Amino acid sequence: MPAEPSWDSNHLSDGSDKPKIDDNVLHVYNMRLCPFAERVMLVLLHKSGLHFNCTNINLKSKPGWFLDSSLGKVPVLLTNGEAIPESLIVCDYLDEVYSEDKLHPADALQKARDRVLVETQGQMLSSLYPIFGKIPGKIFSNDEKLEKFQIVLKYIGDFEKELKKRDVQNNGFLGGTTVCMADYMIFPFYERIVALPHIVAELGDALRIPSEMEAVRHWMRCMRELGPVQKYGLSPECLAKALLVYQRRVLFFFFFFF
């Protein structure tokens, strides 16, 4: 059995040599801390026995060969000499081509409902990112971060209602008793929400998911038990440490956090 790709390896920067790509093996341009790239990695790991390789890209100093073969963003899936960008497009492709361990529901209407949920929840990133990330030319005060978190809480509240509507507290996942595509597409955002008290330690509990959001908390516990999440996901503490390293513009090996 082929060895699993090393996703905790060095991130390649401008001036680095282009890696050798085997057109017969799926290859992902990845960034270890990117929630969109994480979507693709989780889907790849979900597909039993699927062999793939990955190359980590330093998004603050992108190699020229990466810019020439992509939109300048990760993830990018390389397959049969083609480059497929954007996480949702890549994940749809993978689920259609590798139909074992299917993630999308068979019912077209339910698939549409799931996509609406994914798109709606994804809109929270514009408020979530300023809390833990750095935006060039803008520094957010703690008061501004708390204001942003109030917006994030509205999205969490909407998600809580949807989870209860789908009886996730008894079933475990948006897809019922088994994980579905929407679960994997939304999880990376909540992985970062749970890490906020560690990332912005001075605000601590003020950035926690409220205890009354029982469905969200239960869903997160169920997601954490999945094999792909256990392999690729990061604990709140590790994610916080790694983000601090990234914000200092250092992108070497992340595995020393694990």
Spatially, the strands of the biggest sheet line up as 1-3-2-4-5
Strand elements, count: 5
Give helix % range. 40-55%
Low-confidence stretches: 250-258
User: Which band does the percent of strand residues land in?
Assistant: 5-15%
What class would the helix/strand composition place it in?
A: alpha/beta
H/E element sequence: EEHEHEEHHHHHHHHH
Radius of gyration: 18 Å
The best one-word shape is globular
Total helical segments: 11
Taking the sheet with the most strands, its summary is: 5 strands, mixed
Mean pLDDT: 93
**Distance between the ends:** 24 Å
What does this structure look like?
The protein has 258 residues and is α/β, with parallel strands linked by helices. The longest helix is centred in the middle third of the chain and has 24 residues, at 142-165. Helix 1 crosses helix 8, helix 4 packs parallel to helix 8 (181-199) and helix 8 (181-199) crosses helix 11 (236-247). The protein has a five-stranded mixed β-sheet, with helices on one face. It contains eleven helices and five strands, in the order ββαβαββααααααααα.
Brief summary:
The protein is α/β, with parallel strands linked by helices. Helices cover 49% and strands 8% of the residues.
Could you list some keywords that capture this structure?
globular, 5 strands, alpha/beta, 258 residues, single chain, disordered C terminus, five-stranded mixed β-sheet, 11 helices
